[in-house]
Amino acid sequence: MSALPAQTRPARRLAPGAAPERSRRLRPAPEAVRRARPKLAYAVVSLVSIGAIAMVQLLLSIAMTQGAYELDAQVLRQAELQREQQKLSDDLDRLESPQYLAMNAEALGMVPNSDPVYLRLSDGAVLGQPTAAQGSSGSSAALVPNALIDGVPPVTAQGAEQTAKGGDAANAAAGGGNAAPPVPDGLPTPATH
Fold first, then answer.
1. What distance in Å separates the CA atoms of residue 84 and residue 96, rounded to the nearest whole number?
2. How confident is the model at residue 102 (pLDDT cuts 50, 70, 90)?
3. Which residue from 1, 27, 46, 158 could staple onto 172, CB 3.0 to 4.6 Å apart?
4. Residue 151 per-residue DSSP state
5. Which pLDDT band holds residue 144 (cuts at 50, 70, 90)?
């Protein structure tokens, strides 16, 4: 025998002469048997909601496309600004070159001193014999001309061009934005603007 208790109920005994019980089955009620027709309002609400979802999806797609066009325009603008920055940086490097500074100093009347004098700070002694500098034509001209500053007028010529043309000094300093003409004796350099 097992230790588990019995799980079934004992069958009921019927009284003699009593009719046996009919088995119980579930049956639908007569009113529920006929099918309920869908109402027109449900169909209209579902169609309107599907249309609204499609419209919202279309508007989001248009907004995303517009954002892509704006992003592309900003990327192009950034590339243009970077080219302009590089051009201005090249112009600034050219104008800061020692050859350009020496050319401008000569144009303003300065002359190089071939006999410099030095001052020793520890005791204040003067080393060398001070003499006046003598100017000569082309005294500081480079042995090999610099093609980077060819076509760029010195400061004194810029002032004359500005008054003659009515242009600005920045345009004259940059050589008018044109590429420098080739120099037969100089080193060729490409114009990268």
1. 18
2. confident
3. 158
4. T
5. low
Report for 3-7, 67-71, 171-175: range of highest mean pLDDT: 67-71
Which pair of tokens denotes residue 82?
A: 């970077």
Residues 6+ apart with CB under 8 A from 95: 152, 173
Residue type, 66: Q
Tokens describing residue 109: 């009347």
C-alpha 174/C-alpha 179 separation (Å) is 10
pLDDT digits (tens, 9 = 90+) for 49-99: 999 999 999 999 999 999 999 999 999 999 999 999 999 998 888 888 888
